[in-house]
Every structure is written in C-alpha cells, then in structure tokens.
Amino acid sequence: MKKIIYSLIILTFVSSCSDITDENVDKKNPSTVPAATLFTSAEKGIAEQVVNSSVNKNIFRLVNQQWTETTYIDESIYQWTTRKISDNHWGAFFAGTITNDGSLSDLIIAKTAIENEVIIASDPEFAAKTIVKKNQLAMIDILIVYSYQILVDTFGDIPYSEAFKGSGNYLPKYDKAIDIYKDLIVRVDYDIANINPVYPGFGTADVIYGDKLSSWIKFANGVKLKLGINLKASGLADEIADAAIVSASANVFTSNNDNAKISYQNSVPNTNPIYVDLVFSGRHDFVPTKPFVDALVSKNDPRTKVYFAQNLKDANGNAAPYKGGVVGLKNSYSKYTHIGDVVQLPDFKGTYMDYAEIEFLLAEAVERGVAVSGDAASHYTKAITASMEDWGVQKADIDAYLAQTTVAYASATGTWEQKIGEQAWYALFNRGFEGWTSTRRLDFPALVPPSNADAAAEGQVPSRMAYPIREQTLNAVNYNAATTSIGGDKLTTKLFWDKK
User: Fold this and answer.
1) Phi, psi of 323 (to 5 degrees)
2) 3-state helix, strand, coil in the chain (%, to 5)
3) Which helix H or strand E contains 141, and what residues bound it?
4) Confidence at residue 3, expressed as pLDDT on a 0 to 100 scale
5) pTM for the complete prediction?
C-alpha cells in the first residue's frame, strides 16, 4: 500500500511540474520586449534628452546663451564636471562602455529582433509583411543616424563601428568623426530608398508621425541635409556633401505640417520635460539672457510675446520692458523676464526638427555654392516666416517684421553668415543643441563668454563637450587615442566641421 501511495505522489509531482512550465514566465515582466515598445521608448528617450532643461543632462540653452541661471551658475560658466553632464548626455544615447541602457540600445535591440523575424515564403501576406519589415528597419535606422549625429556634434570622434558589440567588445575604439558622417549619409540614403509609404511601419507605436511614412522620408532627408551642410562647412568632402544636400533638398520639409515633433500629455510622467523641470519641480532656475532678449527687442520681434513672459511691472503697476539675465552671474528670478508660459505647458510639443531649421539650412546651402533650388533670400524669409507661424504669430506681424531694413536679407547687417546665423539663433529658441550647432558652424551670433568662466574654457564659449569621465577610466586606451586624434579632450577643441 505504501508503494502505491509513493508512486502516486511521484506521478503527481511530475505531472505538476509539467503543468506549471508556462507559469515560470513572468508575463508582467517579459524577458523579450516587443520591438514596437522599444521603438516608442527610443522616440521618447531621444526627445527627453533633446527637450529637457535639467542642468544634469541638457545645458545647451545655457552654452548657447538663450537662457541663463538664477541661483546656481556653474553650468553657465562652463563648470560641467561636477554634475557629470557629459556622462549623462552620452548615457542618454549609449552609456558607459556602450551598455544596454540608452536610447540607441533600445533601437539596436529592436532592430536585431526585427531582422531575426522569419516570414515564411508560403505566407499569403509574405510580400506585404516583408515591406512592413523594411519600413520598420528604416524608421529605426533613421533615429539611429539622428542620434549618432548629435553625439558626433557634441564630442567629435566616438565609438561607432565597434559599438554595441556586447560581450564581443566592451571597449570599443573611437571612429573618426568625418568617417562616421560619411557612413551616416550612406545609411540614411539606404533608409530612404527602403521606405514604402503605402504600407505601415510601427502603427500607433510611432509617437512622432503616427506612422505617416511619407513624413518619415522627409524627416530622413532633413537629417541628411544637416549632415551635408556640416560636411560642406568642413571643406573636406565637398563632392559627398554637395550630393547629400542636393538630393535631400528635393524631398524635405515644405511647411510646418512636416515638423518632427513628439506630443505630450497633461499628466506626469507623460508631460513635456520642461514642465517637469520648470513647473512641477517648483523651481525657478532659469531666465532668458540679456543678449537674447535685447536682440529680439531691438528688432521688434513679435516672438517676444511668446518666448518671454511679461511679468515685470513699473512703479505704476504697468508692464515694464523685458529684462534679460546676465550670463555668468546670479539673477534674481523676480527681477528678470521669465520664460514664456507656452513653453512651460505640460503638453507643449517637443521638437526633433522643424521647417524653419530646414529653410535656414537651405539658405546656407545656397550661400555655400550648392546647387539647390531657390535663392538665399527666399529661403531665409521662409525660415523666419515658418518659425513665427509655428509660434502662433499673426501674418500682419510677420510681414511687418520682414519689412524692416534690419531684417530683410538684402539690407540686414553683416555677411551672410551673420544674417542667417543671428536669425537662426532667434528661431532655435528652446532648441539649445541645434542652436549651439548653428552658432558654432556660422560663428554668429558672436557670443561672449562670461568674465568668470571656468578656466577649462580658456576664455572661449565651448566648442564641444569633454568625453565622459567613465570613458576616461573604463575605456582608457581608446579614449587616449581619440583625445590625440581630435587634438585634445578640451572644451575649446574644434570639431572637424567647425573651421573658424
């Protein structure tokens, strides 16, 4: 009898083990995340870094002197090591020695998963599924190219050809910035050729364009245009640069309807990061700078009413003139003009790229002798108009602004670099990184570093960020080689396209 009972227990145990195999999978925390989810995460993660205003992550509005600080002035005077800002900016895309915790990692994992998907040839939807797969891979790669350009334009040489090899190479070499640029142009050309806008991509998982693939083609061409313009400015590969600019210009943004923006919601954690930084946090860390405020006011720019809050009052309680903060000094929040209310709304959209930026690049292309359609003056005018329309300025005010001799392309002060550079600076308000890139490339506006700037800046406005501290310690051999290659890991080292 005991033997029978023992046998039954064993059989029951074996049967039970067999039955609970599927229960060993944690369905709430899956080991494999769907590619579509990773794609959404990457879109949101990239936007988070591009949009946020945290002094721990994104200080480009400060270095480009559109915003300045009120109480803690370290970042405005280029003391960037205490908070490890370089590490955080690097880590937003890929962290440390290229580990799987940045937006690029999400994209690489999603790409690998999709590439490994097998579509059976006998599947009646084989052709359609194959096209969708190509669309998805192209969308992923466009964001990869976009991200790599930001990293190159921040640091110079970076890990590229050996990046994301995992256990195959935890210590990747740094590729030359110009070589990365050339390869990125090849990649984005391939992506554009592989998108079929008749078919879907990621559906509702695409939170930039809502799966409108024709817009992704234009966005990809915008990325290629930026790559081409910077490469052209370098003077090192004119043939490649010209070809990229000309081909991109044929199918790029033509109105604000094409803008690449991510939508936010009214409730945390899905609000615009600026709302979190400026409102939800209860902090008052920033005000617009005196150089930026004075420049817009002097030109009667109607965007002042949107960019800035009319918070200052005179002795009679009437609205007082706008007053920008002094770069490098502490600025009492109550005594200076504030950032405009619309920028601080929880659902204010975050911008990857916009039509105004594209038109300024096309104006620059004309002046650099590239054979794109239109003249510099028309592209310049379209750029200003696009910016103002995007910020809600009325047509009459736009026309009045453009009619001023200090604004019209033919009569505005200075070289073409000054005309385009200063107006791009105005239009790229709240887009600190792209504003900094434009300023570095054109050398306008002529920003003046604060007198108390950190010694690391050597009396200059920084041209780049120093490499992350952990790269210096964990990937020292390759870091040292990169440092030698670029001419020193300094804030003043010029990128390959920053020639002046």
Assistant:
1) -140, 115
2) 55, 5, 40
3) helix 126-155
4) 40
5) 0.93
